[in-house]
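Standup notes, structure subgroup. Blocker cleared on the zinc ion input:
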Amino acid sequence: MEWKEYFIGQLMTQKEVELIWNKYLSQSSLKLETIFNHLYSMPTIKIKQKYILCSRCNCQDQQQYYMISFNKSKIIYCCACIQMGRISSSDFLYYLPNNKPLKIRNKKSFLTWQGELSPQQHKASQEVLKQLNDSNHPHLIHAVTGAGKTEMLFPNIDEILRKGGKIAVASPRVDVCIELFPRIKSAFNSVKVLLLHGKSETKYEPCDILITTTHQLLRFFQAFDLLIVDEVDAFPYVDNDCLHFAVNRAVKEKGKLIFMTATPDKKIVKAVKKGLIYETVLPARFHGFPLVEPLFFWLGDWKSHLISEQTNSKLFSSLKDFVALDGRKLIFIANIKLAILLSEWLNKQFKSLSLSYVYSSDPLRHMKVEKMREGSYDLLISTSILERGVTFENCHVYILGAEDPLFSKSALVQMSGRVGRKASYPSGIVIFGHYGITNEMKRAVKEIREMNQLARKRGLLNAKI
Ligand SMILES: [Zn+2]
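Run returned:
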């Protein structure tokens, strides 16, 4: 491999350049100094009169910069991107854009996926394929939960691979990245696929397809011919200017940006309406069954019934019915403390039930999700962290306290979308247990119904229940 390949597309600190040289090139005749002479550089922190700007994350919030005096000079640090390694105004950032033009190098497909796209997926895939060379317009894939949006992108990824290009699939959610990685790796098993996120030990190295969190994109500079941002409306990407900046910089000037979600936010919907972003809508699930519509269930003051463990409450009777359902059960609840109380209560009441709870900073989070996936738990109680990106076979959902202000329309649609994702279990139960119906709840159900209607209108709901 030519030495430049180790650096292409990356934005690096001096230390990072040295680490790469040490790891791959210190045994060669190439001197570190020669490498620095070939790399482009820029000051890490730009100081414009009273305005400070970090070159890595472009943070506009002046509160994120702090200054220390050292040997009569002032050094400024950026706190906004400190988790990527500390940088200061006394450092430089080094980069080498990916200038390799795309041209067909391989007639043969790299796709080793054995599945078949549904007619809807195939049509959408072709639609995106036609726009792949248009770098001026990002493409939004608005696909309902379980539509198979990842699979429909396989022909697009293959096209870029055959042209010798580089691809990144990024998501704001680490759980989504972890779930995507094995699927993409087995779909393209002859190319190098790498998973990169803040919690893994893996360091970046040249690869064909990178699966990464949006945060890690701060490490790249015009690197990718195709950059796919999955779950584009999810926290922390949505409304985060630094991450938007990172995405736009990580894609090559002539590269293509694709956004994917089941629940586009207002900003992106507006951009679509203005014609700045092209859109492809997939209203049906890949198996041709409709989205499961939620059932509203009024619980009264469920919080106090939960705290006092009242078995003669609507809450308890609804939980009893839910627990008795055949299959895996997922209960969403906004508050961690209440999630713990609920798990203790259910443990006491249903001794034969194998259950656990999970929340965002839970150190055992990934292990618990894996155990739920393989069927070791009957029931998992979760805060909204599992609202998207996870698929459990034969699963029912109970959203306890659906009226909580933390549960937006998008969150409710995503949580409902965990049910009926597999062709072997295409339906199930979704309950909105509540103490008063909110507008967000109404909007969520409206959206689910509208997508089902659109799918029916397009003749995509072939399966009979
Ligand atoms: Zn920064």
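Discussed briefly. The CA atoms of residues 98 and 284 lie 38 Å apart.
Next: hand off to the docking folks.
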